[in-house]
Amino acid sequence: MAQSSVPPRPGPWLERIAMAYFLALSPRLSKVPQPELPERLAPFENLAVPRRHGHGTLAATWFPAEGRPRGAVLLLHPWLVWGRAYFHLRGRIQALRAAGYHALTFDFGGFGDSGPPQFFFDRDVEAALEFLHQRAGDLPLHVWGVSAGGYWAHPVLSRTKGVTGAFFEDVSPHLMEWSWRMAPLGRPDYLLYRVCLPAAYRFLEVRRHAAATSLGAVTYVSGERDRGIRPEDTRELARLAGGHYYLVPGADHLGSIKLAGDEVIGMALDTFQRAEEKTLAVRPELRSPEGSDAPDRSAPSSCRSFRRAPLPLGGERSHAGRWARRLRAPGRHERS
Predict the structure, then answer these.
(1) What DSSP line would sit under 90-102, residue for residue?
(2) Under a CB-based contact definition with an 8 Å cutoff, are residues 313 and 302 in contact?
(3) Neighbours of 141 (CB within 10 A)
(4) Which sequence spans correspond to the domains of the chain?
(5) The whole model's pTM is what?
(6) CATH classification of 3-284+299-335 is 3.40.50.1820, yes or no?
(7) Backbone φ and ψ of 177, nearest 5°
(8) Predicted confidence (pLDDT) per residue in 53-94, tens digit
């Protein structure tokens, strides 16, 4: 789909109204204190990300890569009370660091210590990506978004070419469609939103944004038992974005990482690797000059495709070893 097909952003005042209505229709979340960072994730640094749109800053945490860095990943949390603390579990951060990636997590507006939301949440993704670029320099940037976090990344990725690869878990083509299935009592309000705020509704259509992305590689993952995000939704987004998909049997919403964590993490690392390789093939000038101290993006990383190279992350007994074995197993789950 052409770039011109991406719906225009609503004007500032209309966006404020649409955002207020959107929040009123969203699942209610209690304001809870954010848990302390566990020592097992050290070293880390808590930061404040400036915002160009909206009041206050975004509370964030920086996790430096182990050894020589080869890239940086922005982690986008789902619509849960814990905000960025969602990523303290399930091993995503540890795997990224071991593979040579810096990681940045942040709380969307209204979560944790971040300022209140006023505009659509893609503005927060935009601010965090700009901050990550300043922090990581010329390293390749990637996005790893879960549920609502991945959803709000799409309007940004459709208007920027600064991101190399992306990996998405449980992303709906439209949050109103997800709500229509999961909270049917609110259907009159969802219909009213679509009728009264058509420009905002069209802007929130992720299918259009997915078709306009220019990523080196992208993968979508979801559970086959997810009632809000159907398998055909995941397949469609992958097709529109020119990427791959992965359906986990028996998994409900946010359940793929629980039932197939090693496979999910392994595919994320492989996606970022493929994106970097494609970018280098198109833009060979990104390779570092011989003898330079700059990070060489063309050098094999510890997340090199599990089907083609050994993993220097602790052997067959490590998490990386399990990713390698499971990804070599034929036909366990549906993927493209």
Answers:
(1) TTHHHHHHHTTEE
(2) yes
(3) 24
(4) 3-284+299-335
(5) 0.85
(6) yes
(7) -70, -40
(8) 989 999 999 999 999 999 999 999 999 999 999 999 999 999
